[in-house]
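Re: guanosine-5'-diphosphate-alpha-D-mannose structure - here you go.
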Amino acid sequence: QGSSNCDARRFLSSPSTTISLAVRAKVNAELTDQDSDNDCRVSVIVPTYCEAKNLPILVPRICEAFEEGGLTGEIIIVDDDSPDQTLAVCDELAARYPVRLEIRQGERGLSSAVIHGMRMARGQVLLVMDADLSHPAHKIPELVGALSDKNTDFVIGSRYVPGGGTDENWGFFRWLNSKVATGLARPLTSARDPMAGFFALRRESFQSANALDPVGYKIGLELIVKCRCRNIHEVPIYFSDRLHGESKLSLKEQLNYLRHLKRLYEFKLGVWAQPVMFGLIGLSGVVVDLTVLSLLLYAVSAYLARAVAIGCAMTWNFYWNRQLTFSKSRRRHVLHQYVLFVMSCSVGALIDMGVFSLLYANIAIFTAIPQLAAMIGILCGAVFNFLMSKYVAFK
Ligand code: GDD
Ligand code: MN
């Protein structure tokens, strides 16, 4: 059925081809002169993959919203070469509406499609929404309007503020999934619904972004963090189930989300990212240590149990530090790194012991509270371990 499209696409040779379909002259002409603060130029960016059936419903709705809100603007559809009728449908729509179709060939991905669209956009306000009619187009003026407050730098069409909600058809799993994903992002932003794909920001904010590299679906979250948006306004929306077609959110995307979160935390924490990660892994190592110890105490002597538990914790810490904290130096030989790591941990333990002994033997308060001396010993050992890991084992 899509064969005519495929033929048409053969003429589009460059990897990414803009088909500037009869952009309504009004859109750009009207903008230059009598611009006032409330004369907004909006670029609505709609990433699509196989949404041909939804576009003829979505586009008129967006234009109605433009009219109702007294907005002028354009609709940029960024399609990843869908094997359906998207091209033909957009062609038809462009005759009547300010639609630009941007087809990317040989590239897939929601987030990169959105960024691509933002780079093409001519509006002062960039608004992103899904094509599947999950996002209420009539809320566009409210989202755009919220940006006229100079203090607001990001607006979300939010499911999780009073008045917002999701379709009843949302299964428990999807709900839980969304909640967990949101919770993991909590320290990155105060937004209630940072996962949303319905949001708006100023063009300047987008242009100020530091090195955008989203690995998954959460382009909104990426922009909030990388554009350092602090004042986020959330407009309640009702998120409905898609009308036609199916969601492209797969398990792979969820794993990508975890990778994405790691990068965002690294960005946010800057130079502290590695020590914090190292510390957290160290804490998890303590849990491993105590668990193994408790289990082995049933089977073997306390000394042997202690020794094995320490070995397990070290190996655990090594594995996760190699995987996460120092993932950039994974190309070096693993055994070599392991030996260096274990050696520095052992020296770290000696330092811990030495500091403890010094404090305990010489200062009254530490003699009275040995735990305090132990804590300082642990801290010194950990700092030493970190430095050795960073500059020796995982150099
Ligand atoms: N260009 C392009 N390339 N567009 C894509 C791609 C892609 O690889 N994958 C998905 N899209 C488009 C879809 O066609 C749709 O318009 C929009 O991106 C959202 O895709 P869905 O597949 O409908 O995603 P969803 O409903 O599971 O997820 C939505 O809700 C989430 C919150 O629950 C999105 O808005 C997410 O961003 C949001 O996090
Ligand atoms: Mn959807």
